[in-house]
Amino acid sequence: MNNPVIVVHYHEVWLKGRNRRFFLRKLHTSLRLALQGLPINRIEPLGDRMLVWIDDSSALPEISARIDRVLGIAFYAIAQPTDRAMEVLCETAWKQVEDRRFFNFAVRAKRSDKSFPLSSVETEAAVGKYILDRLRAQNREVRVRLKDPELTCYIEIMRGIALVYARKIPGAGGLPANTAGRLTCLLSGGFDSAVAAYQMMKRGAHLTFVHFYGAGVQPGESSAYVAGELVKQLVPYQTHAKLYRVPFESIQREIASSAPEEFRVLLYRRMMLRIAEAFARRDRSLALVTGDSLGQVASQTMHNMVAVDAASKMVVFRPLVGTDKEDIIFAARKIGTYAISAEPFHDCCPMFLPRQPALYASPEDVARAEEKLDVNKLTFRGIRTASLLKYEYKSGRVEVSEVAMKAGRHNSQIAVG
Q1: Do domains 5-170 and 182-416 have the same CATH topology?
Q2: Which of 10, 128, 244, 390 has its CA at 20 to 30 Å from residue 121's CA atom?
Q3: Are 64 and 78 in contact (CB under 8 A)?
Q4: Dist. CA 58–CA 3, nearest whole Å
Q5: Where do the structural domains in the chain lie, given as residue ranges?
Q6: What dotted CATH number matches 182-416?
Q7: What is the pLDDT of residues 311-324, one digit of tens each?
Q8: 231 pLDDT above the threshold of 70
């Protein structure tokens, strides 16, 4: 029993009632895919938790790093399996806490095997007394505190074995990946849209990405490279993803040459929504996602967001609409996208910016500003010139492949309709 066992506790899954089995299957699949290629013996569902049995303890750091990105986990713990004899149980519990610094503690025992001779309360008392005696022998001023202790030693007694641990590691939380349907996210190279994507992934949505870029796709040339790196960072949360890359400069130039200056950015964004909607319908997504935050820039006033949304027949979700920039930056650091978005690149959106952008446009204002544009032609140009990358998370690595785009009848109908 030298190799530890990972005890995985669910997040919201436990509240799902009759649908619980569906969510548990998805969580089990996510764990299995995340831990591919590592010395895992088995993943065993057990009551309100899952046990990950490990064949080689040297792989623990990598196992923990991968579990950190599995959605649906409230917390997990690295537990030591042990014999159920009380003297062995006490000694194992002591080893879990002896190097920790604390002023009060408690022992919590859970007995799933009722044939164990001691009750949960009796087990807690016996192990707690043993730990306290050992602490007092070291002249440490420590007390037992049953309510809100600084440290809790957990004992889970099962048939033929017991698990002991004293450190809970926070999980990613949320719902298991790919449990809530498909969405398509308009992904820029900046901080906001990547965080918005993560927020929707955390609610169980599976995201496809659409990115609009200017000239070049190499590091430092445009946002296309940065967007690709962002998808690489995000895809482990949902195991696979698509990224449509749309060259947008020629469309911008046509808008800038034909439309009133103050509406340019809003018209760019409306065209982006139309093109993204085409890909969303192709991939059977139910809605679009953007990283807009209310009032952050001129195009993100309440009036302007409504005017932009009028170009799409699909619902547009904005999970960050009420979030300030500091909170977005904090989240970006947490999920590992901050350093990627902070890289220098040439974004397409600031091209041909108006000197005084409209702040309170109406859908009717923007529709009139589009009258000289051939909207269907520009939409189909974006679809036709796009490239597609596929990302797959396998054995701890993200594999990227470019896939040929098929300009079929379905795409044409979307563009014209």
Answers
A1: no
A2: 10
A3: yes
A4: 9
A5: 5-170, 182-416
A6: 3.40.50.620
A7: 999 999 999 999 99
A8: yes
414: its two tokens = 């979307």
Cα separation, 128 vs 125, in Å, equals 5
> Rounded distance, CA 169 to CA 66, Å?
13
Report pLDDT for 112. Answer: 87
Band of pLDDT at residue 299, cut at 50, 70 and 90? confident
- Whose tokens are 């969510």? That residue is 23
391 vs 400: CA distance, rounded Å: 5
Report the mean per-residue pLDDT for the chain: 91
Residue 343's pLDDT band (cuts 50, 70, 90): confident
Distances (CA, A) of 1 to 56, 100, 281, 360: 11, 23, 52, 67
Taking residue 134's Cβ as centre, other Cβ atoms within 10 Å add up to: 17
**Per-residue CA distances from 268 to 6, 251, 294, 299, 345 (Å):** 49, 8, 18, 10, 19
> In CATH terms, is domain 5-170 a member of 3.30.2130.30?
yes
3 state SS for 293-354 = CCCCCHHHCHHHHHHHHCCCCCCEECCCCCCCHHHHHHHHHHHCCHHHHCCCCCCCCCCCCC
pLDDT band at 404 (very low <50, low <70, confident <90, very high): confident
The stretch 46-56 carries a mean pLDDT of 91
β-pairing, 206-213 vs 240-247, is parallel
User: pTM of the prediction?
Assistant: 0.90
